[in-house]
Amino acid sequence: MSTIGVIGAGTWGMALSRMLANSGHRVEVWSALTSEIDELITTRKQRNLPDMEVPTSIKFTKSIEKICIGKDILLFAVPSVFVRAMAKQACQYIPRGQIIVDVAKGIESDTLLTLTNVIKDELSVDDKHKEVKLVALSGPTHAEEVAKDIPTTIVAACENMEIAEKVQDVFMNANMRVYTNTDVLGVELCGALKNIIALAAGICSGLGYGDNTKAALITRGLAEIKRLGLQMGCLEDTFDGLSGMGDLIVTTTSLLSRNNKAGYLIGQGKSVEEALNEVGMVVEGINAIPAAMQLAKLYKTELPIISAVNDVVCNSANPRDIVQKLMQRDKRTELSNRF
User: Fold this and answer.
1) How far apart are CA 112 and CA 90, in angstroms?
2) Assigned domain for 217 exists
3) Backbone torsion region of residue 291, taken as left when φ is above 0, otherwise alpha when ψ lies between -120 and 50, otherwise beta
4) Above 80 in pLDDT, residue 307?
């Protein structure tokens, strides 16, 4: 059995902590919010997962040094906007050759780095961390369902297949099936951009549109993500897999999706701020929009749905007008190569 340190005590961090503890692994959890640790110790409950009992075997600490030392795997489970700060805070305590698994989904807007690369960049301040092994763990995985042991699949992505397989072995159990992939960039790109498509799906539902519209958004949304990813050198198989199509389906269709819910509220006429306040948790699709727009420009790639969401969220465009604008675009073919 492995010893795992979890940085972040939100829904995803705690759902995975419970799953790993129930598989017999030794799990310790740290949070930047000391009050969150106190609450978890006292109640054995994560407030956004009220039906989930936190196993007594899970230990908690308020020491960032303690969470990093002596762990087979260090799991980063914090919102994308906090990944760099957490890596910087933990850097001095992370041992040489440490396996770090990141489960957040996003792209840093200033650097356009995916999150494993954000961690790598922050740890590159000294030669000690050259041998750190970084893994992206991503796929169609609602924390609420993992917390209930509902069968789930996910992808462990690392350029080093041996490390990906090691993470696969640790996280795989009767309820969690883990696949491997060496296309880390593709997996992380899918994880970030699908949230923007989910915002679009939610907006359309809020406007009163139906299944036809949602099916179009899912299909053409994946085409956009794949088009950009291939320009960036990613593998096509990734987009047709769990971290691509799989995660896109669950995020655009599920009532558990924060991005879908936020989009729905915006489609009903609420402001972005009002929607975020009502959701009450981090909506990663909002955070991903600036980077997506910059990548589209950098790689000269057309992303009409993502651009439309940007117009609504960042430029206060009328959602119904934007839908009509999408529908009236110039004619296209589905074929990537014209014969």
Assistant:
1) 22
2) yes
3) alpha
4) yes
* 27: containing domain: 3-182
Q: Is residue 16 a part of any domain in this protein?
A: yes
Burial of 42 (C-beta count, 10 Å sphere; 0-12/13-18/19+): exposed
Using a cut of 0.90, tell me whether the model's pTM lies above it.
Answer: yes
Classify residue 87: in a domain, yes or no. Answer: yes
194 part of the active site = yes
Query: Which of the 8 DSSP states describes residue 114?
Result: B
Answer yes or no: do 190 and 294 share one domain: yes
Q: Give the pLDDT confidence score for residue 337 in this predicted structure.
A: 66
Catalytic choice (105, 133, 194, 226): 194
Residue 332 belongs to a domain: no
Residue 338 pLDDT level (bands cut at 50, 70, 90): low
pLDDT in tens, 87-132: 999 999 999 999 999 999 999 999 999 999 999 999 998 777 889 9
Count of structural domains, the chain = 2
**C-alpha angle 144-146-147 in degrees, rounded to nearest 5:** 65
**Of 141, 158, 182, the domain-final residue:** 182
Q: Which residues contact 325 (CB under 8 A, 6 or more apart)?
A: 308
**DSSP symbol at 269:** T
Same domain, 26 and 160: yes
